[in-house]
Amino acid sequence: MHHSTVSDTRPDAFVRVRGAREHNLRGVDVDIPRDALTVFTGVSGSGKSSLAFGTLYAEAQRRYFESVAPYARRLIHQIGAPKVDSVTGLPPAVSLEQRRSSPGSRSSVGTVTLLSNSLRMLYSRAGTYPPGAERLDSDAFSPNTAAGACPACQGLGTIHRTSEELLVPDPGLSIREGAIAAWPGAWQGKNLRDVLEALGHDVDAPWRELAAEDREWILFTEEQPVVTVHPVRDADRIQRPYQGTYMSAHRHVMRTFSDSRSATLRARAERFLTHSPCPVCKGRRLRPEA
Asked: Do 121 and 135 form a contact (C-beta atoms < 8 A)?
């Protein structure tokens, strides 16, 4: 009786490195599990970066460049071939720069590596559309474009809300005493208080004693009225009248959280927000059509 042998075509479950000699490595042999989160640890100078970047990533990049046209290779910085006997089971690799930065709420691995652009094009050109559905451009598959972002959460996947309790934690204080905790500090906060006073609002009464409609307008209005402010004159300097623009506490918090490049300012603004998944896109960040 003859038995037929069927070869196992499944990919190797490990990335196998043999004879790695990059930088301070001395003929290192190691098997690294694929499809798993693997961490290299060790004291400074033990060869972590030499193995991860100097060997594994450099070899992945070298193999990728073999598929790139020769004229295009000249335009891309190449690490060079690593000193290693063999590397098998190596998948495509992406290297993310380790640095302190202030990424926006829309940043992801896809946007950093530009892989999201290729995926959007793939969905647009090769996606399976429901019967009768209109074909979509690639922009419709991006939460960072007007064509693709969920209109309810602007493509963030999360709804951010403020409330009077968060913006004014101590209603026993007056506006002059700092009742609106979400306002900026220093001269910006004083300017908003002076503008409110110029608009005719009572900044000395305890917050809880203000009329409900006044509290609502002060905290949540989208209006930005401009008024002439006459600051109190100090004995040692002259402060001339100026045109001040009012911004509600809600508008200030949302603008700071969305647009500020300062991680410190965004963290401060976040203290006055609640977060919940978008009820429209369920956190997917895209329009229903996509």
From this structure: no
Assigned token pair, 79: 């690490």
Max Cα distance, the chain (Å): 111
Q: Quote the DSSP letter at residue 37.
A: -
Token representation of residue 133? 């559905």
- Look at the chain and count its residues: 290
Paired with 86 in beta bridges are 18
Q: List, for residues 224-263, the tens digit of each pLDDT value.
A: 988 888 876 555 565 788 888 999 999 999 989 878 888 8
**Res 237: pLDDT:** 60
- DSSP code, position 171: T
3-class secondary-structure state, position 220: helix
Task: Show the DSSP H helices in 3-136 as ranges.
Answer: 48-51, 58-65, 70-73, 109-113, 115-126
- The helix or strand, by DSSP H or E, that contains position 19, with its residue range, turns out to be strand 14-20
The per-residue pLDDT for range 160-214, each reduced to its tens digit, is 889 999 999 999 999 999 999 999 887 888 889 999 999 999 999 999 999 999 9
What's the rounded Cα separation, in Å, for the pair 95 and 87?
17
Does an H or E element contain 277, and which? strand 274-277
Per DSSP, helices labelled H in 27-73 are 48-51, 58-65, 70-73
Say how many C-beta atoms besides its own lie within 10 A of residue 189's C-beta: 17
Q: Domains in the chain, start-ordered, CATH in brackets?
A: 14-88 (no CATH), 164-272 (1.10.8.280)
Q: Are residues 210 and 193 in contact, defined by beta-carbon separation less than 8 angstroms?
A: no
Neighbours of 4 (CB within 10 A): 4
Of 271, 242, 274, which Cα lies nearest the Cα of 183? 271
Q: Evaluate whether 218 touches 192 at the Cβ level (below 8 Å).
A: no
Q: Is 178 exposed, middle or buried (0-12, 13-18, 19+ CB in 10 A)?
A: middle
Rounded to the nearest 10 degrees, how much is the dihedral formed by the CA atoms of 136, 142, 143, 149? -20
